[in-house]
Amino acid sequence: MTEARPGGAASASLWERDAELAVVTESVDALRDDSSPTEMGSLLMFGGEAGIGKTALLAETRRIAERRGCTVWSARGGETVTSVPFNVVRQLLQPALVSLMPEEAREYLGDWYEVAGPALGITDPGERQADPQGVYDGLVAAVSRLAKREWPLVLLIDDAHWADQETLRWLAAFCERLDELRVLVVVARRPGEVSGESARHLDAIAAAARRPVSTLIALTPDATGGLTRATVGAHADAPFCREVWAVTGGNPYETVELLAKVQDSQLEPVESSAAELRALNRSARGHGLVARLEGLGIEATRFAWAAAILGTGITVDLVARLATMRPAEAVRCAELLSAARILTEPDPANRQADGGELEFVHPLIASAVYRSIPDGLRTAMHGIAAQVVTDTGLGAAAASRHLLEVHPDDDEELVEQMREAAREHLAVGAPEAARRCLERALVEPPLPEVHPHVLYELGCATLLTSPATTIEYLQAALAMPGLEGDDRVSAVYRLSQALLHNDQLDEAIRTVDEEAARLEPGPSRMRLQAVHYMWEGIHAAEEDSPARSRELAELAATCTGRDNSERALLILRGFDAMTHGESAEEVVELCDRALVNGRLAPGLGWTDSAWGIELLLMLGSAYAYTDRLDRAESLFTEALRAYEAAGWSGGHLSLAHAYVGLAHRRRGRLRDAETSLRESLRLAERVGRGLPLYWSATCGLVDTLLARGRVDEAWSIAERYGFAPPYPSTIVLPDTRSVRGRLLIAVGRTKEGVNELEAAEKACAGRGRNPVLAPWAGDLARALVADDPHRAAELAATARQQAEHLGTDTAIGEALRVAATLETGQRAVALHARAVTYLESSPCAYEHAAARVEYGIAAKSVAELIRGLTLARSCGADGLVARAQEVLDHGRGLR
């Protein structure tokens, strides 16, 4: 049995906790063991009902860790502050960060300083809406870097069931990284207290532990007897001790409080006094606690109520302002409540960075006091608290927690405060908190002329997290009068973007068309026309493609590139011409006209919200498939740098990696391509399967693995990530059916592969696709050469005709490679030689290597095979290397 100091509440709650303390000690010792060559952190989670001793166990964990030389950071959730984003993670990290000089903090956090700093409250947020995923990644990186500085580090999080959702999401992500870090995380929570996203995050945190959740149980009668005698004296008799256990049910907190009341009342701990224990226990909790508080006087009660309203950052000065009492009276009340074991000063070793001078002795007391405030008064006090917080300069976001509790009252000022709070929340990466503020503003409600703007802001706040919710809010905003001009056009664009992300592409196009039809000719109408063509341009199931292309060509012919609407139309026309396999020179000329001195125009950058990522990906793709890979790679690399610098690590960064991977793949840098595409797929997994960005990553990775000759791995990726029909409604680069058809043939499922390539032929019929973008014809010709040579020859001829129309060295060289596979003898050798000539001038090194190896085999040339082998090795094309090496090793007939 764990020994306890008489009268010590913390240690009293540690009776019968030997097993849990042994696990804690073992985990701390393992953390400090630097003999292990690998870094490995761990997670402990303790659960149990209120008052069961979780807080005391974490306090003892702190003492154990600190005695062994560990750095300990701690934080605690609060029932009344769950709506405050990043509240608990700020408690956890701020003490360490504010102890650093700003230069030191920047050094340790590096590029993540500007991303995670605003969420932690150590630096001001930027003007742009922060990417939530980037913020969480930044927080993970921040703790990871600080952990190496502060090793051995122990993180304690109490009452995790009351932690804010943003903290729980961060903690779930951080716990996934514990295998890489020497950090011990200890979490305490009550079961069954939360639902929804918070419950999901808590489950993910628990799943990261190597041990099952340890559920604390009530004290046994023997332990309760030992605790009773240790507290009130060894002369406490057995019937009295037994009644203490019966009254409290062995709950450590209730036992400690009851025994404190026994001491206060000077009750003799003998059988004749046992009948009074139940009345004493009632006074120590619930209504009894409230009665005890009221017994301290109205001033002390008002002080306690005000402290409960504040919830965190409790100072005597703030409480005095909220309770409207003089400073001297406030100090007296704080002392009185401290003597009554309701409020206490925080342990100096565990003091948080919220500026609080006081805290409730136990969360149960805080909850009981808060709930004891009459409803109407509690609401009014929250309103006053909002004003007090605002007056102290803490900002609209800090005040919004209180304003959320105020009854609607047609208050224009409250609406504006909540809108400002939402902007602050968005700037630190807390869109859910912003949504709550704006939805509360709607309830007020806003003035008619303001109402659609609040709905528009709500739609923007949820765009990154819930396209379906965004659609609802933006449609409502557009249906109301008051949203006009640029704001209305932007709302229509955002709505169409949300519809696209929600796989409602047809509806997105209709929405844009209806709004464009009501506008007079000018920049706004041209912008929506460009959006129309942008969405149609990425529509995989596009109908009447020639007519659409003619309309776009006619519109683009009037554009000089004088503003971004015209530049967008030039890009769209260039992309359309590229997908249709029109002259590469004309495609490049159109795209170049959309640039300003060879650069993206202001307002048309990767992180600018007016146009979005899709347009610029189309620009880079147009360059990539017209052999201007230097320009494509420059654009995609710029996107990657821009998103990393801005801390965007969600879907935008996933697409940037995918398209950088595309550029590497086209250049023949297959190892680099695989690395980029795997990172893209990792990021896409966090965003959600089934989205277009997920297909881009998967398709690109399968294509690259096939080029590397790693067929089994390509098949495994396809199976694991669902790379199979049905395909998305948007275009994916490279063409999904072409890649899957090639994959099926490579794994020996030739008939299925042929069917897939024929489906690609039908899908591409409306577009007349670029033969490099959608190389189904060449792959289908190779597959049919033995069984249907006539059909194969027709396909090869079509591919060659399309390649010559496009006019790039890559397209013509690839078409000649296909034609050569259908021939024999010197005719085949001559075609292989011509293919090498074209691909030698192409920027696509893998295709050049393949052509060299094929030419070497056809011509039986050692020199050509060695050239091809060298190129294949530099590309990382293992299958091609093996093929060339095998021919060289056998050497029969080689010259």
TrEMBL record:
Pfam families: AAA_16, TPR_16. Residues 17-186 form the Orc1-like AAA ATPase domain. TPR repeats lie at residues 613-646. Gene3D superfamilies: Tetratricopeptide repeat domain (1.25.40.10). InterPro entries: AAA_16, P-loop_NTPase, TPR-like_helical_dom_sf, TPR_rpt. Keywords: ATP-binding, Nucleotide-binding, TPR repeat. This is AAA family ATPase. It comes from Streptomyces chiangmaiensis. The lineage of its organism: Bacteria, Bacillati, Actinomycetota, Actinomycetes, Kitasatosporales.
